[in-house]
């Protein structure tokens, strides 16, 4: 896999560290340290962050789904602003783009603008998902990675790859070194949600899954060294 322009997905829970909710500064500082190694080496890095450390649209029955999803999208923006600031503190230049206007808080996404920022050596945060309810940040990252001609999507997870069954339940579960996106879809392995999987297949966007908590895993992945699973197209 080429690694000139890579998109990294962090789940909201990943930012929360052991607390599982809110932010864990040490966890995010460690992510920043590793991303900086790649940025300093000239890799263009786009970041998408989930919102699960604050809110998930589908978990509330009390309010209408569209509104619940809007809260979820705002949660992803809070996450991006936080991580962007920690990245700046670590010595990187950053921009936070959203698919809808947030006043002076973020900038409105456009491909030209994002390209310009990448060329300036900035880490670009694609916050707010797709901007539409009933989608996820999985679809958000796929959409932006395809649109921005990224080389691949890196999924830093709390598990070290894609397994044929849940290793928490099945001690004999086997990890794939590589697997095709078609097989991921056929076997319902849920690397990313189905909408995002279909889009990756249609637009030939490879992915890699690895353990966020393994030492130097992000820095290694951005150099093409994946200790996990590569999802081929
Ligand atoms: N969300 C949305 N549209 C998007 C991206 C996210 O409505 O394009 C909302 C949705 O409510 C989701 C929440 O934001 O539950 C957090 O996003 P994430 O992808 O972390 O959700 P998860 O898949 O963990 O529920």
Automatic annotation (TrEMBL):
It comes from the Bacteria. Pathway: Pyrimidine metabolism; CTP biosynthesis via de novo pathway; UDP from UMP (UMPK route): step 1/1. It is an enzyme of class 2 (transferase). It holds the Pfam family AA_kinase. Homohexamer. Keywords: ATP-binding, Cytoplasm, Kinase, Nucleotide-binding, Pyrimidine biosynthesis, Transferase. This is Uridylate kinase. The gene is pyrH. Inhibited by UTP. Its EC number is 2.7.4.22. It comes from Ventrimonas faecis. Belongs to the UMP kinase family. UMP binds at residues 51, 69, 130-137. ATP binds at residues 9-12, 52, 56, 163, 166. Gene3D superfamilies: Acetylglutamate kinase-like. The keyword Nucleotide-binding applies. It catalyses: UMP + ATP = UDP + ADP.
């Amino acid at each position: 896999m080429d690694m000139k322009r890579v998109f990294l997905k962090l789940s909201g829970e990943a930012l929360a560290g052991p607390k599982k909710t809110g932010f864990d500064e040490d966890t995010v500082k460690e992510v920043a340290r590793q991303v900086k190694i790649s940025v300093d080496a000239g890799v263009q890095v786009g970041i998408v962050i989930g919102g699960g450390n604050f809110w998930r649209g589908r978990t509330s029955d009390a309010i209408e789904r569209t509104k619940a999803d809007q809260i979820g999208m705002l949660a992803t923006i809070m996450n991006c602003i936080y991580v962007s600031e920690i990245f700046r503190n670590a010595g990187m230049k950053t921009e936070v783009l959203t698919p809808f206007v947030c006043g002076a808080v973020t900038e409105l996404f456009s491909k030209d603008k994002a390209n310009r920022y990448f060329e300036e050596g900035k880490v670009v945060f694609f916050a707010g998902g797709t901007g539409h309810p009933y989608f996820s940040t999985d679809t958000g990252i796929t959409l932006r990675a395809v649109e921005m001609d990224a080389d691949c999507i890196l999924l830093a997870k709390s598990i070290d790859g894609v397994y044929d069954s849940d290793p928490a339940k099945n001690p004999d579960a086997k990890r794939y070194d590589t697997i095709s996106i078609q097989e991921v879809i056929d076997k319902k392995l849920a690397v990313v949600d189905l909408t995002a999987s279909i889009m990756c297949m249609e637009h030939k966007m490879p992915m890699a899954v690895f353990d966020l908590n393994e030492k130097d895993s992000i820095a290694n992945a951005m150099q093409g060294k994946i200790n996990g699973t590569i999802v081929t197209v």
